[in-house]
Structure formats: structure tokens, C-alpha cells
Specification:
- The strands form 8 sheets. Strands 3, 6, 7, 8, 11 and 14 form a 6-stranded mixed β-sheet that branches. Strands 24-23-26-27-29 form a 5-stranded mixed β-sheet, with no helix packed on it. The chain has a 4-stranded antiparallel β-sheet with strand order 17-16-19-20, with no helix packed on it.
- The protein is elongated.
- It folds into 3 domains: 188 residues, Immunoglobulin-like (Sandwich), CATH 2.60.40.2550; 64 residues, Immunoglobulin-like, CATH 2.60.40.1120; 75 residues, Immunoglobulin-like.
- The chain is built from 1 helix and 29 strands.
- This is PEGA domain protein.
- It comes from Deinococcus proteolyticus (strain ATCC 35074 / DSM 20540 / JCM 6276 / NBRC 101906 / NCIMB 13154 / VKM Ac-1939 / CCM 2703 / MRP).
- InterPro entries: DUF4384 (IPR025493), PEGA (IPR013229).
- It holds the Pfam family PEGA.
């Protein structure tokens, strides 16, 4: 599964408290007013020092590391731009991993984990809180697992200040030298836009069809947008005329113009099948999502699917849609078939001969 960490632009509000009470500050969400001999460090994988504010783009993976100077229980939280608090640790995928041995670095997700942390928008500054305690804490008043199958707990407090207040209640009965906190910062930038080009095909006849890289775009005398840069074979078919074939080069942020003048009626030229080419139907619940195969855009999910004709070989399929995690799968194309990316395992290479394909 994928566990998403959402971007957070946090207010730097101070929470007033009585002398000796826990407070929040611009450096952390909750601060122990004493100086305990217990220490904890939390950092993100782009900054192992904890002194910088690295940038991650929306959809990019992130890993968190914690280290304590004494054996301790560690609890990790994230706060997003809307004030929603996410509990990263403990979770049911890393059972027992909230206990950290002294001077041992633990990373989440760990190597070969069954999940990832993927940064999600909106853009802005994020805070990840690590709370370390010599005693195991009960978070029942802050978070609960919705069902027996839930892998991450739902947090019932909202906002940085309320998280600080809730955690203050949890740690209040503890000796003040038995807990400590640390906060990691990272900035989130919007996803890098996919730069594409356009193709205009004009003809002097009606009912001409445009076939680009084996995929039917539609009729002539119009502009097609959202085409990945590259070189593509194109065929223009018009009733009563031999097909026109050529190669076009699509450049980013530019329109390639192709004008075809059909002259003289003739029997349509037979279409020679391309050996080793197959029709692949990509299915997904991301309607409107843009579909890429090995970096080339092949269409848009309409009514749950899109079909592309490609040669035999291995392809990485990526579907991107606004405000949705990308769907990714790798397939070996060796026959006509289809794949449902909403159900396919993300990191597995699948043959079209497998039963998953229809």
C-alpha cells in the first residue's frame, strides 16, 4: 500500500502555558521546558543533518529517520496545510518499530517495506514531529485504528495547536526528564509540469483520419495537443485515396504543422501490418488521467480505459491525474491484451499472458 504524507504550511503560533508547562514554538510543536538527558533527532532523507529545509515535489517519495541517545519509544506525526494531523508511527506495518535502541538510526519506511510515503500537495512548509519517551505512551485519546484491517491510525485532533495540547495531556503524568521532542522541516513544491507539443494536420479532402504512432487521433484539419516530445510515424487515411505516410517531430510548447494534398482518386492502399505490434488496453479509475508508455503520451483515460498499439517489448505505464497519486506498472507486451492499473501491483513486471490481462 501507499501511505501519503500531505504537504503542510503551518502557522507559527505560540501556545501560552503556565510555568513549567509544555509549549509550542516556531522550532517545534511541543517542547519540554526542562533539559532532559534524553534526546531524539528526526530528519528527512534529503537532509541527514536536520539543519536544512530540503524541497520535495508533489508525488515524490520521502523517508524519515529517527535516532535517540537512550532506549526509547518514538512517535511520529505530520500536519498538513489544512491542519489535518497524520500519525506516521506507530502503525501496523511497522509493529514494534516504535521502540528505538540507543544510538540506533531507524528509517521509515524501512528497506523493503510494503508501503511508501509520498508527498502530496498543497505546496508549502512541512513539519514532522518526533516525540520520544522512556515510557510507552497511550495515544487512545489522540488516534485509533478504524478497523482491525487498518494499517495506519486516524487522528481525531486537528491543527498544530490541538495536537500540542493533546500531547501535553499524554506526557503530563510523566517525569519531565523522561520525554523530549524534535521537529524536521521540508518544503513541498508543485509537481513538475509535463511539457508537451501539438500537431496540426490539414488536408484537402473530407473524412480523413489521423493515425499517430499507431493510435487514431481523429479527423483532419484540427490541432491535437498534449503530445509528448519525440519522433512519431503518422498516417493520414482518406476514403478513395492512398494513405499518406511520413514521420513528424513533436517539440515541447510548439505546434508541428503537416499539410497533405490528396490528388487523384485511387484505390486505397492496403495497410501492411507491423510485425510484433499489439493493442494494449489500459484500464484505470482515474478518468481524465494522461497515459504514458515509456515516457510517450499515448492517450487519456475515457470511460475507464484507453487503447494504444505498440511493438513487442517491455513498457512502463504511468497514469497521472490532478490531485491523485500516479498509477504505475511495468508490462511485457507479447500479445493483444489489457491491464487495470488501479489493481495492478506497482513494482511488478507482468506478462500479457498472465490472467490479470483481458
Amino acid at each position: 500500500m501507499n501511505k501519503t504524507i500531505k504537504a503542510a504550511l503551518l502557522p507559527m503560533t505560540l501556545l501560552a502555558g503556565s510555568a513549567g508547562a509544555q509549549t509550542i514554538s516556531a522550532q517545534s510543536i511541543i517542547v519540554n521546558p526542562t533539559q532532559p538527558d534524553l534526546s531524539v533527532q528526526v530528519n528527512v532523507d534529503k537532509d541527514t543533518t536536520g539543519n536544512a529545509v530540503p524541497t520535495y515535489r508533489v508525488g515524490e517519495g520521502i523517508r524519515l529517520s529517527v535516532k535517540t541517545n537512550r532506549d526509547a519509544y518514538v512517535y511520529l506525526f505530520n500536519v498538513d496545510a489544512a491542519g489535518k494531523v497524520s500519525q506516521i508511527l506507530p502503525n501496523r506495518l511497522d509493529q514494534g518499530d516504535s521502540f528505538v535502541r540507543a544510538n540506533t538510526v531507524k528509517t521509515f519506511p524501512p528497506a523493503n517495506a510494503a508501503y511508501t510515503f509520498d508527498v502530496e500537495g498543497p505546496a508549502g512548509l512541512n513539519k514532522v514531529l518526533a516525540l520520544a519517551s522512556l515510557n510507552e505512551l497511550s495515544l487512545n485519546d489522540i488516534s485509533r485504528f478504524a478497523t482491525a484491517q487498518s494499517q495506519f491510525a486516524d487522528v481525531n485532533v486537528n491543527g498544530q495547536e490541538r495536537l500540542a495540547q493533546a500531547l501535553s495531556i499524554v506526557v503530563n503524568p510523566l517525569p519531565q526528564n523522561s520525554w523530549v521532542s524534535d521537529t524536521a522541516f521540508f518544503d513541498v513544491a508543485e509537481r513538475t509540469p509535463v511539457r508537451t507539443g501539438s500537431l496540426f494536420v490539414g488536408t484537402n479532402v473530407n473524412n480523413a483520419s489521423i493515425i499517430l504512432n499507431g493510435r487514431v487521433l481523429g479527423g483532419a484539419n484540427r490541432t491535437y495537443t498534449g503530445i509528448a516530445p519525440g519522433s512519431y510515424p503518422v498516417r493520414i487515411a482518406a476514403p478513395g485515396f492512398a494513405d499518406f505516410r511520413t514521420t513528424v517531430n513533436i517539440a515541447s510548447d510548439r505546434t508541428t504543422n503537416l499539410n497533405v494534398d490528396f490528388r487523384g482518386s485511387t484505390a486505397p492502399a492496403p495497410v501492411t501490418p507491423v510485425a510484433g505490434s499489439y493493442n494494449v488496453t489500459v484500464r484505470s479509475s482515474l478518468n481524465g488521467g494522461r497515459v504514458f508508455m515509456n515516457g510517450n503520451e499515448v492517450g487519456t483515460i475515457r470511460n475507464g480505459q484507453v487503447t494504444a498499439s505498440v511493438p513487442r517489448g517491455q513498457y512502463q505505464i504511468v497514469i497521472v491525474a490532478p490531485n491523485q497519486p500516479a498509477e504505475i506498472a511495468t508490462i511485457n507486451v507479447n500479445r493483444d491484451g489489457g491491464i487495470n492499473l488501479s489493481q495492478a501491483p506497482r513494482t511488478t513486471t507482468i506478462n500479457l499472458l498472465d490472467l490479470l490481462f483481458r
